[in-house]
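Narrative of accomplishments. A recurring question from our advisory board has been how the design workflow behaves on a single, concrete structure rather than in aggregate. To address it, we present the structure tokens for one chain from the evaluation set, followed by the sequence designed for it. No filtering or post-editing was applied between the two.
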């Protein structure tokens, strides 16, 4: 389908129609939360705030909830185990390109030879309506990570071009929703120019930049395992884990059993975990193979800049700036660390 243009009024009508018809399941969108923004269930298009910078938590929470029961069991003479897999249809409106890149990384990590059913029964039933980020967060550096725009990972992508949104059509699913529920019209050459101008202007609004090409990061890290930067930067780390909990590319979880007091059964659940927490690398014998905060800090940077790209082809950082925004010690930004290592050479 040719790309479309939809007036702001008609976009609101489209969103309200999706909410009413449930044509794509539960409608989730970006809304205000206090003086910040977060994704949540939409009751009406009036709640939607597509002009935001970053959400408190990335949209990954809809495919990979913070806590998720994965099985229930009964104990006793006839023990029984039952997997718990929740299937859900959703339409998430207002996902920024860098968060879509985060979801693509998740798809790679949770896919492969042994796809995770809990993740994919939600992910595959979700329509993603993205929006270009025209007012980036002051700590974001997506422009220099190459993640400020994306050609993949969305069903529809909106770009604010004034009174209207340019709608880049990504999939047949997106196209069908538009055809059936929206009043949109074919985009003209001038509209495409407006979209590209809006995107290019947005790149100039990024305040933080990486002083190298993103593809140079793995080699930089390879050559600097002993860098003093890891020690110096980590000195003030609280090991609070905020930087990993808010990150759209942090995929780790811990698994725990919760046995009922009656001892008749219980459930097993997984919940988000992160490598900046002190217990993360502690194993059964009591050994902690990243006991010191410098080791954890370095590990996180290697995971962002080297390990994931070597295994899954995506860098483990999309430059959203959430970690830097939430770090009380003001040390969490990977761009800042990579730049310091480069400058120290
Ligand atoms: S880097 Fe910052 S956010 Fe991350 S664990 Fe340390 S203090 Fe907390
Ligand atoms: S490491 Fe920080 S900037 Fe990079 S994706 Fe995660 S939260 Fe965003």
């Amino acid at each position: 389908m040719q790309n479309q243009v939809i007036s702001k009024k008609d976009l609101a009508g489209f969103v309200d129609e999706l909410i009413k018809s449930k044509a794509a399941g539960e409608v989730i969108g970006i809304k205000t939360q206090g003086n910040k923004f977060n994704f949540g269930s939409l009751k009406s298009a009036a709640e939607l705030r597509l002009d935001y910078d970053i959400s408190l938590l990335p949209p990954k929470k809809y495919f990979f909830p913070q806590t998720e029961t994965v099985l229930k069991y009964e104990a006793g003479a006839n023990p029984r185990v039952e997997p718990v897999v929740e299937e859900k249809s959703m339409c998430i409106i207002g996902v920024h390109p860098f968060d879509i890149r985060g979801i693509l990384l998740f798809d790679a990590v949770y896919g492969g030879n042994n796809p995770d059913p809990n993740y994919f029964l939600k992910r595959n039933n979700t329509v993603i309506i993205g929006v270009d980020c025209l007012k980036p967060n002051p700590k974001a550096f997506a422009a220099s990570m190459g993640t400020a725009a994306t050609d993949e990972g969305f069903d529809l992508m909106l770009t604010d071009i004034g009174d209207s949104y340019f709608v880049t059509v990504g999939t047949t699913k997106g196209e069908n929703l538009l055809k059936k529920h929206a009043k949109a019209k074919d985009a003209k050459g001038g509209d495409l120019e407006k979209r590209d101008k809006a995107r290019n202007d947005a790149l100039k609004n990024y305040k933080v930049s990486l002083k190298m090409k993103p593809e140079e990061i793995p080699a930089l890290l390879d050559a600097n395992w002993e860098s003093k930067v890891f020690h110096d930067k980590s000195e003030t780390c609280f090991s609070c884990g905020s930087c990993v909990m808010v990150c759209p590319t942090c995929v780790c979880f811990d698994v725990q059993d919760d046995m009922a007091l009656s001892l008749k059964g219980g459930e097993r659940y997984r919940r988000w975990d992160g490598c900046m927490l002190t217990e993360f690398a502690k194993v059964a014998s009591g050994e902690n193979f990243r006991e010191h905060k410098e080791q954890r800090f370095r590990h996180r940077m290697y995971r962002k800049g080297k390990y994931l790209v070597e295994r899954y082809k995506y860098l483990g950082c999309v430059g959203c700036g959430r970690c830097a925004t939430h770090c009380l010690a003001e040390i969490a930004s990977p761009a800042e660390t990579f730049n310091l290592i480069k400058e120290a050479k």
